[in-house]
Specification:
By secondary structure, the protein is α/β, with parallel strands linked by helices. Helices cover 30% and strands 18% of the residues. It contains nine helices and twelve strands. The protein has helices at residues 2-28, 61-66, 96-107, 126-135, 159-173, 194-200, 253-258, 274-282, 292-295, and strands at 83-90, 113-119, 139-143, 181-185, 191-192, 206-208, 211-214, 217-225, 228-233, 249-252, 289-290, 300-301. A hairpin with a 2-residue loop joins strand 7 (211-214) and strand 8. The longest helix has 27 residues, at 2-28. The structure holds uridine-5'-diphosphate and manganese (II) ion. Manganese (II) ion binds at residues 187, 189, 304. It is found in: Golgi apparatus membrane. The chain crosses the membrane at residues 6-25. Mn(2+) binds at residue 189.
């Protein structure tokens, strides 16, 4: 009788254990969220997916805390995400709204981005004002006209507009200790990957990366050795102190504020030297921070939009409606 009882007990034991384990596992599973989680882009550079691996504590930590009677201490506050300030010069032309639409669609996916749109015009246009009001982005709308004498082929473009953006930044942050920020010159016709913003957000002083489709080559890039920029891969004027396109660098807000006189120059600036003239005022080649896997990835393209064919556009308005294009 005793042995029968024992054998039954040992037959049942594994089953009892399995049931206990399953109950235990089930209660440990976190409850599903009541509302669907917002989509967090891994490129948003923000609070979501990209930061998860940085959480402190190993896998064993959760179990430790569950047994404590006091609630776990709140996690330390995350440092504020540096704001990316994108300065975009723009001018009226048939493709302007299309360019701005592409740009806004990109920027909208980037966390904590402030768009400084500077019109090359004597006044803010209705088209751009309306566009920005509906863009769903934190933005500042500035304008400054390029003097007529500088509107010639071969002369640098958008000098006054970029300087207006710089002046706004300095004025806005001049009287207080600067919040962390990164400045980037984003022409309205280029193509920007979302990864680019993740890279530039960690800029400490001045960061650099390759640019595709520029300088008569498939790409230009800073040459990097042991984490430092030692030269430039370029097919055009390799003697430039910083042989880099406007789309190939970012500057921390702190550097912009501590070099209040650094601006884009008209006088004495040769074509293609805008970037070098500006960067010379705020940094040195040795100081540059290479991004995009030591400058081996193209994350931005110097695309240029083809001039549109308006050969069949009527001289006088013929349509029954007036449409903004
Ligand atoms: N731009 C401007 N006024 C002009 C020509 C250009 O504000 O008269 C702006 C343009 O919208 C762009 C930037 O300046 O954001 C650079 O111009 P563009 O793309 O024509 O130059 P590139 O592609 O040759 O560097
Ligand atoms: Mn361009």
């Amino acid at each position: 009788m005793k042995s029968v009882l024992f054998s039954r007990f040992f037959i049942l034991l594994p089953w009892i254990l399995i049931v206990i384990i399953m109950l235990d596992v089930d209660t440990r599973r976190p409850a599903p969220p009541l509302t669907p989680r917002p989509y967090l882009s891994p490129y948003a550079g923000g609070r979501g997916a990209a930061r998860l691996p940085l959480r402190r504590g190993g896998p064993g930590r959760g179990r430790e805390q569950r047994n404590e009677s006091r609630p776990p201490p709140p996690p330390p506050p995350e440092p504020p995400l540096p704001t990316i300030y994108a300065i975009t010069p723009t001018y009226s032309r048939p493709v302007q709204k299309a360019e701005l639409t592409r740009l806004a669609n990109t920027f909208r996916q980037v966390a904590q981005l402030h768009w400084i749109l500077v019109e090359d015009a004597a006044a803010r246009s209705e088209l751009v004002s309306r566009f920005l009001a509906r863009a769903g982005l934190p933005s500042t709308h500035l304008h400054v006209p390029t003097p007529r004498r500088y509107k010639r082929p071969g002369l640098p473009r958008a000098t006054e507009q970029r300087n207006a953006g710089l002046a706004w930044l300095r004025q806005r942050h001049g009287h207080q200790r600067a919040q962390p920020g990164v400045l980037f010159f984003a022409d309205d016709d280029n193509t920007y990957s979302l990864e680019l913003f993740q890279e530039m957000r960690t800029t400490r002083k001045v960061s650099v990366w390759p640019v595709g489709l520029v300088g008569g080559r498939r790409y230009e890039r800073p040459l990097v050795e042991n984490g430092k920029v030692v030269g430039w891969y370029t097919g055009w004027r390799a003697d430039r102190p910083f042989a880099i396109d406007m789309a190939g660098f970012a500057v921390s807000l702190q550097v912009i504020l501590s070099n209040p006189k650094a601006v884009f120059k008209r006088r004495g600036s040769q074509p293609g030297m805008q970037e070098s003239d500006f960067l010379k005022q705020i940094t040195t080649v040795e100081e540059l921070e290479p991004k995009a896997s030591n400058c081996t990835k193209v994350l931005v393209w110097h695309t240029r939009t083809e001039k549109v064919n308006l050969a069949n556009e009527p001289k006088y308005h013929l349509d029954a409606v007036t449409i903004e294009v």
